[in-house]
Amino acid sequence: MNKTDVIIIGASASGLMCAIEAAKRGRRVLVLDHTNKAGKKILMSGGGRCNFTNYDVSSDNYISRNTHFVKSALSRFTQWDFIAMVENYKIPYHEREHGQLFCDNSSKDILNLLLDECGKLNVNIQLNTDILKVNKASENNFTIETNKKNYDCAALVIATGGLSIPKMGATPFGYKIAEQFGIKVWPTSSGLVPFTLQPHDKEIYSVLSGIAINSLVKIKDTLFRENILFTHRGLSGPAILQVSSYWSAGESIEINLLPDINLLEELTATSKKQPQVKLKTILYALLPKRLINIFIQPELLDKTLQEISIKHYQQVSQKLQNWLIKPNGTEGFRKAEVTLGGVDCDALSSKTFESKSISGLYFIGEVMDITGWLGGYNFQWSWSSGWCAGQYV
Ligand SMILES: Cc1cc2nc3c(=O)[nH]c(=O)nc-3n(C[C@H](O)[C@H](O)[C@H](O)COP(=O)(O)OP(=O)(O)OC[C@H]3O[C@@H](n4cnc5c(N)ncnc54)[C@H](O)[C@@H]3O)c2cc1C
């Protein structure tokens, strides 16, 4: 049996951050991962440029059954702390809209930062390692059987993430360990994921594939103002990904394709000043012609404003500013960026991330029932939770 102080299962964002902090405290740390490369999700994130955090982070940017849980960790290891690490490594980065921070060059810069720190602190990272069995032999003693060696450790950290993108190594391992130790796991579903449309809607809207429109998208009381993107199979784009995390099957979403104007007022005012102008002239100036031709009946488009009634102005405004669409479903974990649900926060300490019922067992990162918005919030959660647990393991 190989003895060590801390074993972390999952060599990615939260696991590597936890490893660095624990090793700084002089703990002997072993990180195990079943894939052949650490941090695969970091590498693929942010379109290859890793949206590593956001200038503006608060608990409002997270979805969880326990919305207060994130506050402590986010305040102890903040976005500014991670930005300081990035600057210390002289990684060039830039801000995009909504305070999102991306690498100028490549996500590799972030992964290299983490691996470099691990290297300096003698963190042992073992890849291609399948975990066969985990047991708690006694107080402060976990035994881990793998396809290579068997280990025992005082503290075991589960940093195995969620279910999105199975081909990058995602597994339900963390949930299974929680269940093995009697820790509650909330049902999981895909978040930050494109919608598919009902067959009838798909037939209508798929011809708009490739068109992106800056829109206001609403689901229940939650609103996002960003691009929506028409795709061959449905709807995507940042605003759609954001609302998908709040969506349940059978619900409709409401889309305002012209969020900066009141179309009804514009049409009414223009009809007084320029009654001879055609409806299509006005609408083609506001939105792509291809989209207008799909959304508005051709017989109306060719009419002048004086030829059509206020009822028609209302219909047109309703269609473009309160477009109600009921998705058929989502693209699922194959395309999702994150997993909703997971290990119950109430079962863990928000200070240490240790299980309240099983001493020495910790859960960090996305495996927990914490899901961030699009915009760097998911990585910030990995950094903050990993850093905090690293102070205690
Ligand atoms: C395409 C894509 C783009 C994204 N872009 C961004 C972005 O720009 N900004 C942002 O904030 N978030 C982004 N995210 C989300 C972000 O990647 C995750 O929230 C974050 O990586 C979670 O970190 P984690 O350490 O908890 O888990 P993960 O990064 O998922 O790491 C889990 C690790 O555990 C390992 N593992 C899993 N099962 C086992 C097992 N059975 N045995 C051993 N090891 C196991 C995995 O191989 C992996 O290395 C993106 C996600 C995707 C899919």
Overall description:
By secondary structure, this protein is α+β, with helices and mostly antiparallel strands. It is 32% helix and 26% strand. The protein has 14 helices and 21 strands. The protein has helices at 13-24, 40-44, 70-76, 79-88, 108-120, 173-180, 199-205, 238-244, 263-273, 279-286, 289-295, 298-301, 310-321, 377-390; strands spanning 2-9, 29-32, 51-54, 62-63, 93-95, 100-103, 124-126, 131-138, 141-146, 150-158, 185-191, 195-197, 212-219, 222-230, 234-236, 253-256, 323-325, 327-330, 338-343, 361-363, 371-372. The strands form five sheets. Strands 1, 2, 7, 8, 9, 10 and 20 form a seven-stranded mixed beta sheet that branches. The protein has a seven-stranded antiparallel beta sheet with strand order 17-16-13-14-15-12-18. Strand 14 and strand 15 form a beta hairpin. It is elongated and about 85 Å long. Bound molecules: flavin-adenine dinucleotide (FAD).
How do you describe this structure in short?
By secondary structure, the protein is α+β, with helices and mostly antiparallel strands.
